[in-house]
Amino acid sequence: MFKHNHSHETRDNLSLYIDHRLRPADTLRVERHLGTCPACRAELESLRTTVALLQHLPAAELPRSFALPATAVPVRTRIMLPRAAFGFATACAALLLLVLFGAEAFYGGAAGERRTTTLVSAPASDARYSNTAQTSKAAGALGAEPAAPGTAGTLGTNDATLPKPTAAAASAAAPAPAANRSGTSEPDPNASPMPKAALSGGASPLPTGALETGTTALQQATSAETTPTAVPAEAQDAQQPASLATSPWRTAELAVGLIALALAVIWLVLLRKAA
Amino acid sequence: MRRFSVWKSQQETGQDHNGPPPFAGQVQADDEKSLIDLSKKGQREAFNLLVGRYERQVYNLSLRMLADPEAAADATQDAFFSAYSGLRGFKGGSFRAWLLRIATNACYDQLRSRKRHPSQSLEDLLFDPDHPIDFEDAAERPEEYALRQELGRTIQNGLLGLPPEQRVVLILSDVQGLSYEEIAEVTKSSLGTVKSRLSRGRAHLRDYLLQNRELLPGKYRP
């Protein structure tokens, strides 16, 4: 058996020499070596004989003609789409999936912030309605009808509608002085409305003390209702996970992910068949 | 084994397919490019002229790859049907290399099918001396003919022992005389890979022949 070592020509070089595929300089070197190395000469001769045997192998006779018959219509037994098309489609689906993830992170986050803002401000609007109810309650405690929006100016025009201070108003106004630091004189709950000098337009004097009491009560009700509580936030948190699970982003991502997976599997199968 | 339904029905009726079927139209073009262009337009007669030029080479490649005449015939027929169906995919260059590439793939399909459903042993694949496949030369003496048949069997056995990728390169180069570049095009591999596979394939076949030199006729023993 021919042994290869650094002093002999390689088998590859001898094979190329047989086919006259060596560069001229390498050809000269091999021929010079063959002149001095019997082992390489024997190796070359055995390879040449093998090649000659193959070249003289007779051609087999055809068993029949392989010409296509007149009525034969080649039926494709499988889908002959190019492999590259499936590879390209897989890449596009993967890219689309990345775009969806990015879009969800960008637009979904902004939408989440808007939801948070909406849920946080809802109690304030509710408080306004609550304040109205509280106003009604306070006004009722004061013994007068609640002031409808836009009708505040009418309070001073009709003495009969003016609320009269009562004992209940006195107790409700008790903490009011602490909140009312505007420098106005503290109302005297027991003071009856005193007619004052006519204001411009002939308006009757307003019972400022009762109004301030009602205003203070309104302020207390408003502050109590607008303070963010844990309950709305918890309700908000409880709602968000449910909305994310059914978001259209997730549905689209799932659909595109499944399509990309199917395309990748088909592409790999076609690659394996071609190998 | 793929079969086109109409082709099979014609076989069952015993229609003769030993020679090229007659065609009605007049095919004027003779050069290969014209035949290819006409074939792309659907002229089956033009394609059959191409079949006539290359069927022997394709069949011999398949036979040396598979060592089974029936499997080789199937692979050859499949190769030409695939070539006719996919002719639009031929964008130029060596039509022979393109066609042999299809034939090589058809042979690989047969080999894979054989692996999945091994129904024949290597001995079954040996050429039957009572039914030789090589042509008989009238000028050849009987003993020379017998020697040649025996030589063919021994070499075929040696080829069967090679890996398919070495086997196909050896057949294309030393049996069919293709250049390195054309072999690279057929096998979709680099020139270096072709050289390496050819070198290893020759050495392995040489080693097989040396180990079984008693099977070789006297004058062929290396």
Structural description of this entry:
The complex is a heterodimer of chains A (275) and B (222). Chain A is an all-alpha fold. Helices cover 61% and strands 0% of the residues of chain A. Chain A contains 9 helices and no strands. Chain A has helices at residues 11-18, 24-34, 38-55, 83-142, 167-172, 176-179, 208-226, 230-245, 248-274. In chain A, helix 4 runs antiparallel to helix 8 (230-245). The longest helix of chain A has 60 residues, at 83-142. Chain A is elongated, with a radius of gyration of 49 Å. Mean pLDDT of chain A is 66; it is low at 129-211. Chain B has 222 residues and is an all-alpha fold. Chain B contains 10 helices and no strands. Chain B is globular, with a radius of gyration of 19 Å. The chains are: A mainly alpha (275), B mainly alpha (222).
Task: List the defining traits of the structure above.
heterodimer; A: 275 residues; mainly alpha; 61% helix; B: 222 residues; 64% helix; 0% strand; disordered N terminus
For the largest interface, the chains and their residue counts are: A-B, 39 and 63 residues
Number of helices of chain B: 10
Order of helices and strands of chain A: HHHHHHHHH
The computed structural class of chain A is mainly alpha
Q: Can you give the mean pLDDT of chain B?
A: 80
Q: What's the total count of β strands of chain A?
A: 0
Average residue pLDDT of chain A: 66
Number of strands of chain B: 0
- Structural category of chain B: mainly alpha
Straight-line N-to-C gap of chain B: 40 Å
Strand-residue proportion of chain A: under 5%
Number of helices of chain A: 9
Name the poorly predicted regions of chain A: 129-211
Helix content of chain B: 55-70%
State the low-pLDDT regions of chain B, or none: 1-29, 120-136
Integer-rounded radius of gyration of chain A: 49 Å
Describe the oligomeric state of these chains in a short phrase.
Answer: heterodimer
SSE arrangement of chain B, N to C: HHHHHHHHHH
Percent range for helical residues of chain A?
55-70%
User: Which of globular, elongated, flat, extended, rod-shaped describes the shape of chain A?
Assistant: elongated
What coarse outline of chain B follows from CA principal-axis ratios? globular
